[in-house]
Amino acid sequence: MKYSNQIMKLFLNIIAFSFIAINSFAADNALTNGSPAAQKERLYQRFVKEMQQRMQEMQKLDPSNLDLSFTNVEAQSALRVVFESAIVDPSFGLEWDEVPAPTLVGSDAMSAVRSFVATNGWNMQTNDCIFDCISDDDHQPKSKPIRGLPWAVIHEQEFPAVTHDAILYVFFRGFHHDGHGVAYNPHTNHFAATIDSFKPIGQHWYAWAFDHEFPPSVPQPQIYEGAKPLKNATPASK
Question: Radius of gyration over alpha carbons of the chain, in Å?
């Protein structure tokens, strides 16, 4: 199917604003229990509602004739594609800080992490360039794939991963110079300066995000395990 120019513009705007929204803001909504299919559909309906609200705000700044109701077939199809590419799993929510605690425990739960570190060491990336570099080749990200993370729903999925200063960073999703994922920080080391937001989620794991292109307008959490949140935390405050 060939999309019209208007739909393609809408599609690109949806992509940009969906990933920006996911990376930049802490969540206000909690997911409820239910079947995976029902949970995914509820998450999609929430995604549509939030995109409508954000694109309406955008339209106030740049008026256009775009149909923001998402009721026509082409727009719904485009929105569904963006939604599918933006989520890791329905149980992980929409926003970067909705990632749940690891669900797998025991001696084998961390075998993939131990193997990855044994092979690659704890300092693959020697600078703060974590998954986002626009400099020369010597400073490009040095990530490698990892599979077997300690969450049952994504245990078989493969993600880019890199270590820096004894922290393992795993990249989930992103758009251009904004992204989010999880990190394993067993010694509570300081996060790389390029990681703008982070919070512990259990068993030395953290959810994190960086917002290099579209910084959030409000302070975002920078919380270490066992510590209280920083007051008025911003990327510059670290």
Answer: 19
